[in-house]
Amino acid sequence: MLKIPLVHPEILAALASAGHGARVLIADGDYPAATTCGKSARLVHLNLSPGVVTCTQVLEAVLPVLLVEAAAVMDVPTGQPEAPIWQTYRNLLKDNGYALPLGKLERFDFYQAVMADNTALIIQTAETREYANILLTIGSL
Questions:
Q1: What residue segments make up the domains of the chain, in order of their start?
Q2: For residues 97-109, average pLDDT
Q3: Whether the Cβ atoms of residue 12 and residue 123 lie closer than 8 Å to each other
Q4: At residue 92, what are phi and psi to the nearest 5 degrees?
Q5: CB neighbours of residue 37 within 10 Å
Q6: CB neighbours of residue 136 within 10 Å
Q7: Residue 47 to residue 34: CA distance in whole angstroms
Q8: pLDDT digits (tens, 9 = 90+) for 40-82
Q9: Crossing angle of the two packed helices 85-95 and 55-62, in degrees rounded to 10
Q10: Is the peptide bond preceding residue 53 cis, with omega within 30 degrees of 0?
Q11: Helix, strand or coil, per DSSP, at residue 47
């Protein structure tokens, strides 16, 4: 039995086969994963029912086993306040030893980034909070 916080076999396999510069999307329940999944990405569905499983739960499980060099979110429309979940992401990154800024990409730029050939994994959650998508870029040792 594994003694790490992440035990999902398909997610572990996708992370193990991804290399430096590969991207991992933790998608909220509203994200159009089926239509923005690039040809290189594995799509793992963890959306059981609304709010089960959340993006923060997945991020908490993934961060201890992954080296992250960048993190980005889908930006809110101009004039809207920042999504509250973003501070939670900053705190989780910091708690796992990362002093990374949380980058922001406009909606369609975010979709394009996810559809790029270097996206290795999309984890579709049932997160109900708005603008909860987070795109991680894998770093190197």
A1: 9-138
A2: 97
A3: no
A4: -65, -40
A5: 19
A6: 23
A7: 13
A8: 999 999 999 999 999 999 999 999 999 999 999 999 999 999 9
A9: 10
A10: yes
A11: coil
Query: In sequence order, what are the residues at sequence separation of 6 or more whose Cβ sits closer than 8 angstroms to the Cβ of residue 140?
Result: 20, 67, 69
Q: Which two tokens stand for residue 9?
A: 């076999």
Of 49, 129, 27, 47, nearest to 88 by C-alpha is: 129
Instruction: Indicate the residue type of 55.
Output: C
What's the pLDDT score for residue 97? 96
Buried b (16+ CB within 10 A) or exposed e, 59-80: bbbbbeebebebbbbbbbeeee
In the CATH hierarchy, which top-level class contains the domain 9-138?
alpha beta
Say which residue the tokens 């510069």 belong to.
21
Encoding tokens for residue 53?
Answer: 């499983």
Say how far apart CA 63 and CA 84 lie, in whole Å: 20
